[in-house]
Amino acid sequence: MDVLTLRNELETVLVEYLGVYTLGNGMTTPAVSVRSSGESLPAGTVVSGLELIILRDPALTPVASYTNRQAFREWNVFLIDWSRSTNLTSAAGIITWYYPDSTVSTVTVPEGLGPSAQMRVTIRTAPDGNSGSGET
């Protein structure tokens, strides 16, 4: 699975939960982004509601089976509630239902350094590109 496929699938399954990016020019778009670690949104972008961030580069876990060598991809996805009104557990639950090999953890953010309501979901996709559910 590539990052664009993952992004499109997550935007579809979380459509009822997603917040909004208001860009510097006033245009709006669903609050879903693919970024490298440490990368910021474009200047002037304002986030409201639930933001979904997908880290661009997955971790790779090698799998050796007989003469074939492959690797699982583990994508780190962050759910950030800027409004403190979204049920992050429900949103994470949808992801884990759609991608059964996922794990969820709460991200602890010191007060004053960002929104305290954050979760990280690690989505593991099989070497053949499919999610663990076989639905992709």
Task: List strands and helices in order, with pairings.
Elements lengths: L2 H11 L6 E3 L5 E3 L1 E4 L10 E3 L1 E6 L3 E7 L2 E14 L6 H11 L4 E4 L11 E8 L11
Parallel strand pairs: 3-5
Antiparallel strand pairs: 1-2, 1-4, 5-7, 6-7, 7-9, 8-9
Structure description:
The longest helix is centred in the first third of the chain and has 11 residues, at 3-13. 16% of the residues lie in helices and 38% in strands. The strands form 2 sheets. Strands 3, 5, 6, 7, 8 and 9 form a 6-stranded mixed sheet that branches. The chain has a 3-stranded antiparallel sheet with strand order 2-1-4, with no helix packed on it. It has one domain (3-125): 2-Layer Sandwich (STM4215-like). The chain has helices at residues 3-13, 88-98; strands at residues 20-22, 28-30, 32-35, 46-48, 50-55, 59-65, 68-81, 103-106, 118-125. It contains 2 helices and 9 strands; from the N terminus they run αβββββββαββ. It has 136 residues and is an alpha+beta fold.
Assign the CATH topology: STM4215-like
Largest sheet: 6 strands, mixed
Number of DSSP-assigned strands: 9
Share of residues in strands: 35-45%
What's the CATH class label?
Alpha Beta
Order of helices and strands: HEEEEEEEHEE
How many structural domains does the protein architecture include? Answer: 1
- Helix/strand-derived category reads alpha+beta
Q: Number of helical runs?
A: 2
Q: What's the helical proportion of residues?
A: 10-25%
The radius of gyration computed from the alpha-carbon positions, rounded to a whole number of angstroms, is 16 Å
User: What would the principal axes of the Cα set say about the shape?
Assistant: globular
User: Would you identify the CATH architecture?
Assistant: 2-Layer Sandwich
- Would you identify the regions where 5 or more consecutive residues have pLDDT less than 50? 132-136
Q: What is the typical, i.e. mean, pLDDT?
A: 87
Distance from first to last alpha carbon:
8 Å
